[in-house]
């Protein structure tokens, strides 16, 4: 049975699995000094069309926390959206790994930060008693399934850089954002002013792992020590990196992401049609948020569907993944139709 709770409910996509198995061949150097890791980093440099510095870590919490820690000192602060994963779902890891840097959460429509909110957060205080803003972190695609366009990113990055702040992107669903806009990864990151990207692998079909991509290599100074100290340096690194090779080939990662996005649009259109319930946010990526009447939500759960309702601005969240089948979406929509009729 497929579910809509999270895109990390899905298994490993065949391309990543094949690459993982292919890497299981003989003895090779450990700790990242192997062919697969070097090649995966090269493929990412080609993908981003720039000489970026790349690190592979186990999960998104570590990627975000260690990247943010690299961008600031313990007495600094990090501006984020109040729905940001770093704020709501990382158990204080960004604060922990930065030795106390404070997250400053600000508002913004549709899960997005605005230049005005950044300016307000930076200007709020300038005295020595308040942590000094040093980083802006934004999530792409956002926690409510919307996507920043390059002009929006550029405006945010300009507002940040003009005030001496660095720009970090939590790209747990970067693939879905790229597929949604149909633009190049470069246009959506460094060309728009992003300094560091945490490129999510897990949710796009890898067994495990994310890539931390530094577009400004100076910011990556000693980053490998940070990873090691945090328990994020895999000794058998090839099994983290090889799956990336599998999905970066032939645009597989984008194809999977585009499929997930299409399934989300199908789901949103279906639920709107059969129950008159519109999505709460534009379906720019692979997530759909709907405010379901209690009896429909309970009815879906009774029928065995798993989905979250604690994320974002309320409502039920339905996430689609690389393997979400159209039939699964149609079955869910059919159940919503029946439950809406019964009531
Ligand atoms: C899933 C996710 C992460 C990473 O979470 P981990 O469970 O630590 O891998 C980071 N940011 C966002 C927005 C996410 O949805």
From TrEMBL:
Catalyzes the cleavage of L-allo-threonine and L-threonine to glycine and acetaldehyde. Its EC number is 4.1.2.48. It is an enzyme of class 4 (lyase). One of its GO terms (molecular function) is L-allo-threonine aldolase activity. Belongs to the threonine aldolase family. This is L-threonine aldolase. Keywords: Lyase, Pyridoxal phosphate. CDD domains: TA_like (cd06502). Residues 4-291 form the Aromatic amino acid beta-eliminating lyase/threonine aldolase domain. The keyword DNA damage does not apply. It catalyses: L-allo-threonine = acetaldehyde + glycine; L-threonine = acetaldehyde + glycine.
